[in-house]
Each structure stands twice: as structure tokens, then as C-alpha cells.
Amino acid sequence: MSEQRFIDNGDGTVSDTLTNLMWINNDSYLDTKKFVTFKQAIKYKDRKNKDAFAGFTDWRMPDKKEAQTLYDKEKNLQDKYGIDIHIDAVFIPGCGFDTWTSNTRGKITAYVYSFNN
Predict the structure, then answer these.
(1) Residues 63-106: pLDDT tens digits?
(2) DSSP state of 12
(3) For the residues of 56-101, what is the DSSP string, one character each?
(4) Residues paired with residue 100 on neighbouring β-strands, in sequence order
(5) d(CA 79, CA 85)
(6) 113 three-state secondary structure
(7) Rounded CA gap, 82 and 100, in Å?
(8) What global pTM score does this model have?
(9) Collapsing DSSP states into helix, strand and coil, what is residue 33?
């Protein structure tokens, strides 16, 4: 039996044993029931830090390369539309199909990484 890459920590977080990154198990869509703009994503992250989610106050958005590490064409999880996205099933189904990254484009937006293709 091979070691599981993603570990559910039981506190709303997931640890990635390959990259040593920790992720929030759900996403802003599951929390707010709406898609968020880049500015709203920043506020969402700041709120997680203010609330010390899972005991941490250093939450941040991933950069493009970090977001890409979640993509695995062999994995399938259904997004909010019931369409397969390619991330591990340790994450919560019904999520959005992409993520904002910390790689900005100008002053008001950033790059998005999509998990559907």
C-alpha cells in the first residue's frame, strides 16, 4: 500500500506530503455560496487569519506553481456544477473549479488556476 499524499488533518485542513503545504479543506465558494473576486478573495484570506482558522494566522493564497501541484488528471472530484475537476477527493466536493493565486496582474486582479483541464 502506498502512502497517501493528501492527509485530512481533521481540523478543516489538508496536508500535502509531497510539497509540505497545508490547504484549507473547503474553499471560499463553499463558505460563502458565491464566487469571489480577487479583492474578495484577499478579504476571505484575511478573515481566516483574523479568526486564526485551525490555529494558524499565516494563511495566504498559493502562487501559480503551488496551485498547479493540486492538479492531477487521474483524480476526480465534482465541483459545484457536478462537473469533474482534477484534485484529490480529500477535498470537499461542491467547491469551485478554480483558485485565485498570489500572482497579480496589475493592481486589481490576479492569475487564476483552473482544475477542470
Answers:
(1) 999 999 999 999 999 999 999 999 999 999 999 999 999 999 88
(2) S
(3) -S------HHHHHTT--TT--EEBTTS-EESS-TTSPTTB-SEEEE
(4) 112
(5) 6
(6) strand
(7) 21
(8) 0.89
(9) coil
